[in-house]
Amino acid sequence: MEQNLPFDLDALLVFGKVVECRSLSKAATLLGMPKSTVSRKLSKLESDLGIKLLRKNTHQLTVTDLGEKIYSHGVNILAEANGVRALVEDCRQEPQGELRVAIPVFVGIDYASRVGAKFLRRYPNSRLDIRLVDNVVHPVHDGFDVVFGTGPLQDSTLIARKVFSLELFLCASPDFLDELTEPITAPAQLNALPFIDFGFGDAPRRLTVAKSKRRHELSPVVRARANNFQVCKQYILQGLGVGAMPTQIIVTEELREGTIVPVLTDWTLEGLDVYMIHPFALSFSTLISAFYETACDIISENSARS
Fold first, then answer.
1. Which of 142, 245, 266, 299 has the most crowded Cβ, counting Cβ within 10 A?
2. 104-124: per-residue pLDDT in tens?
3. What pTM was computed for the model?
């Protein structure tokens, strides 16, 4: 294995964090080292490579074109380093200590309780505090170690690991469909019908359906909205409108009995990715890795149950 690298590998990782934060001070705080050390490592890296990586002035920090390419390689190196460190830590000690977790209400009490119970059984030296939340929380600012969330990650000091994707489908009750003057055959028709929507946080969700290469963004009239699928399911069962539900798990029995039926089956509703988010500083925590594995295991069990 080649060992005569022309630069300090640690300095490359420091450079990567500076690029993500766009700030020497923020990167220094995140890495737990003085700003002067970060600056010195960057200068040494530029000297070793013989190129300019960053442009700095009093107002902003920008990355050179070559610096962007080097950063891309640095991201891959960091991922490999994290993997090696995690393997070592997993072998070294059993997960222990307290973990504070925030899970959105829409994910469900059943899922949260099953993940929590399995985690506690697996790791007897662990303690767990799960809070079901109905608003967007930050793992650092709001005092959590781990939060579950959706959408793009806005904070470069955080790490997001995908846990599962909610595969959704449009559905309604037979009674609701029977009362319509014409059958639903096109997505545009939904814009004139009452819609049962689920949501997390205050921002409105975009609903997009796809068929082959065609895509259509829906703009339905939301008659009712809830941050829990069980509540939305009851609205749909009562014939109050068309809604979007996760495939199988929430409505398995209703689909079997025919009390809820799919709508526009040749169109696919865009799924919802759910991530486990935690601070970069906790990347090597065996407790967090263990909880992530348990969360994924429960999803696999749910799929088998369906």
1. 245
2. 887 878 889 999 999 999 999
3. 0.60
